[in-house]
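Lecture 7 notes: from sequence to structure.

We start with a single chain of 201 residues. Read the sequence below before looking at the structure.
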Amino acid sequence: MSGTDFFVHESSHVDEGVSIAAGTKIWHFCHIQSGARIGGNCSLGQNVYVASGVKIGDRVKIQNNVSLYEGVELEDYVFCGPSMVFTNIINPRCEFPQRGSEHYLRTLVRRGASLGANSTIVCGHTIGRHAFVGAGALVNRDVPDFGLVVGVPAKLIGWMCRCGTRLALSASVDSSEETACVKCGRHYRKEGRCVSQVGGE
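Now the structure, written as tokens:
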């Protein structure tokens, strides 16, 4: 299946009632459920599942073997590494199923965040703008803007520039600091656990 301005591989299935914007490519063995919304110029790799009600922004890249369950929202420029995991129920039980959107906790991944391969995002949390979740990390709390988290459970160990370069800022919750990215020159200010870019985009 291919539209006039997006591409879906013939091995994938897109239900009726899905919104797909221009420039998006959906590759092998994907399933997109009715009610999902996918922005423009996205790339969905092999074996990606997108549930009903999921919202995906523009220029999002989702690598192979990722499932986005109801309650997940990705803003623009989010990167989902291979086989990373989202959950949407905090206490699942097979014997006592919890179906329906009233049981699903919202997970929001803000603009420009990167989720490393095999990381797990426990539902009900927000991953901040341009944050970076290391490969294999287990995220069970909110991640601040520009935060770099690794480990099981994930721990804040530093800060990342929008361009993906680690910043020379400490992870201390008490410090006030400023720095510039050694790669792109963007300037940042840190106050406690809050990092913000100084100046223009």
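The mean pLDDT is 95. Keep this in mind for problem set 3.
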